[in-house]
Amino acid sequence: MTLTYPFAVLGRQVLGFLAAVGRIAIFALTGISHLFRPPFYPKEFLTALLQIGYFSLPVVGMTTLFTGGALALQIYAGGARFSAESVVPSIVAIGMARELGPVLGGLMVAARVASSIAAEIGTMKVTEQIDALTTLSTEPMKYLVAPRLLAATLAVPLLVAIGDSIGIMGGYLVGVTRLDFNPATYLKNTREFLEFWDVASGLWKGAAFGFIVALCGCYFGMNSARGAQGVGRATKTAVVTASVLILAANYVLTEVFFSA
Fold first, then answer.
1. Degrees to nearest 5, angle at CA 145 with 132 and 128
2. Which residues have CB under 8 Å from 251's CB, separation 6+?
3. Taking the domains of the chain in order of start, what are their residue ranges?
4. CA proximity to 53, closest of 116, 96, 99, 97
């Protein structure tokens, strides 16, 4: 073993990582380009919108409801050390709108939707249905990928908005019933301290997270290996990659919005 062997191993890993990033970027640009060129498939788009948005609402709603309640309890416990219990309504609202709502919504959608898309498209590849689409002169990227990218990009911000409202309501319920806040005062503090940009930044994050979820599901599904193990591996990789990219993108977007 030579002294340069560790550097060779590291170099191969770095080159492999950059190659994977390049493939995903080309896949994403190809999918986006098909959004603006006919033919269009509105039925596929509406089906994806229903699957990604409406059917993800219960899990996002339950997650944000309990998170808002737990956040109110934690902030109250911390604020009590400095006689600052009154900040609970404002911190819950800002925290849900700017950070927890988009991130939790994105992760829940990634767990549910990225796996579903990867498994569906991966199964289509294994059973040669994608080859059949090509034989019938139907572009798979336009028929399978583009509608899901658009649907997820539009649906997740709506889920985030609803999740924000439910999370703030969870904090309100805990604040009023458990922490003895006056209902009118709690709502007044929430309205006064929550600004438009707090909500807007969370919605922009939701759009980015939705695109990431659909992109990972479609990419790993389209590149799934043959057989049941290949589909299972693609499904697992799609969820893990989407979750990591959501957390990374969250930091980058937070830096951008913080600097703006």
1. 25
2. none
3. 59-258
4. 116
CB of 205 closer than 8 Å to CB of 102: yes
* Confidence category of residue 47, pLDDT binned at 50, 70, 90: very high
Mean pLDDT of 103-128: 90
Q: What is the pLDDT of residues 169-201, one digit of tens each?
A: 999 999 889 888 888 888 888 888 888 888 999
The label of the residue with tokens 């090509």 reads 134
199: left (phi over 0), alpha (psi -120 to 50) or beta: alpha
CB burial string 68-93: b at 16+ within 10 A, e below: bbebbeebbeeeeeeeebebbbbbbb
Burial class (CB in 10 A: 0-12, 13-18, 19+), 61: buried
Q: Could you tell me if 156 and 52 are in contact, meaning their C-beta atoms sit under 8 angstroms apart?
A: yes
Nearest residue to 108 (alpha-carbon basis) of 156, 169, 48: 156
d(CA 255, CA 258): 5
CB atoms within 10 A of CB 43: 9
Residue with tokens 């080309």: 26
Distances (CA, A) of 64 to 73, 115, 163, 168, 195: 14, 21, 6, 8, 20
